[in-house]
Structure to design on (281 residues):
């Protein structure tokens, strides 16, 4: 694995790490039967057809911050990390959006949707 | 039609992105199927451990990078090997952090359930004179006396 691949992987893990932290916070509080705090982080967007705010913060926000840091500090390694994070983030947002739209639109899924204690598709 | 962001990417970056999308579609494909298909295999719904995500989710995250890691070895052309290698690495960029995310969030959910404060106080154990006990919330502490008697009636029950 060369240095570019390492930086791509680090960027993907950084973005995934932010995503994990936000989702684990939600999941822990959901496990306790509470509404996750701070609640603004988990705001639903477009009536639930798009991923909630925390997914956007992690998947889009982290790579953008990495890129801006790389540009500001003039470090190519940070820019490469931003690319790794962007590959993870873009894939997550596109996949999650398609899944949410499918589950919310297909009528036969109604009963499954209601009974599911889904954390992904909250 | 050219999309500016996509056309600005190099061919390697495009392959990495395709790989990431392959991983994502694999995961969310299985995830969506789980909620849409009534006959979704129960084995895939099970968990190896309560702190882990469902088997189907884990499989959908592990399988694509493994397959795309093996695939270049089977390809004959060097060019194809290189392309498959890039796509495979792109899949790893999505799948590996996603495994961490899913395991982390499933474990956090389980820890939340385990640390959940009791919803109501446990009621005292109801005991009857027959030695029956019940801890159920519907149990009431009552005593029942059954007295054998004489005459036509078999029993007189007083409570």
């Amino acid at each position: 694995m060369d240095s570019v691949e390492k930086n791509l992987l680090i960027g993907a893990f950084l973005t995934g790490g932010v995503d994990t932290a936000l989702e684990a916070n939600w999941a822990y509080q959901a496990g306790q039967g509470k509404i996750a705090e701070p609640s603004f982080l988990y705001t639903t967007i477009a009536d639930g057809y798009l991923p909630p705010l925390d997914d956007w913060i992690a998947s889009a926000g982290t790579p953008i911050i990495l890129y801006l840091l790389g540009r500001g500090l003039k470090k190519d390694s940070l820019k490469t990390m931003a690319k790794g994070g962007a590959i993870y983030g873009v894939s997550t947002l596109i996949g999650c959006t398609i899944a949410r739209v499918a589950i919310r639109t297909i009528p036969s899924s109604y009963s499954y949707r209601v009974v599911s204690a889904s954390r992904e598709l909250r | 039609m050219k999309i500016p962001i996509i056309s600005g990417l190099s061919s390697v970056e495009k392959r990495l992105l395709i790989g990431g999308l392959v991983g994502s579609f694999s995961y969310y494909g299985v995830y969506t199927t789980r909620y849409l298909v009534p006959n979704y295999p129960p084995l895939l719904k099970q968990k190896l451990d309560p702190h882990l995500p469902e088997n189907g989710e884990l499989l959908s995250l592990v399988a694509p990078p493994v397959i795309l890691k093996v695939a270049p070895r089977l390809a004959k052309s060097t060019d194809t090997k290189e392309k498959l290698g890039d796509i495979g690495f792109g899949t790893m960029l999505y799948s590996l952090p996603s495994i961490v995310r899913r395991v982390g969030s499933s474990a956090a959910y389980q820890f939340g359930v385990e640390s959940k404060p009791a919803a109501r106080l446990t009621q005292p154990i109801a005991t009857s004179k027959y030695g029956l006990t019940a801890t159920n919330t519907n149990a009431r502490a009552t005593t029942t006396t059954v007295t054998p008697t004489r005459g036509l009636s078999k029993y007189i029950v007083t409570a």
In short: The two ends of chain B are 86 Å apart (CA to CA). Chain B has two domains: 10-114, 126-158. Chain B is about 55% helix and 10% strand.
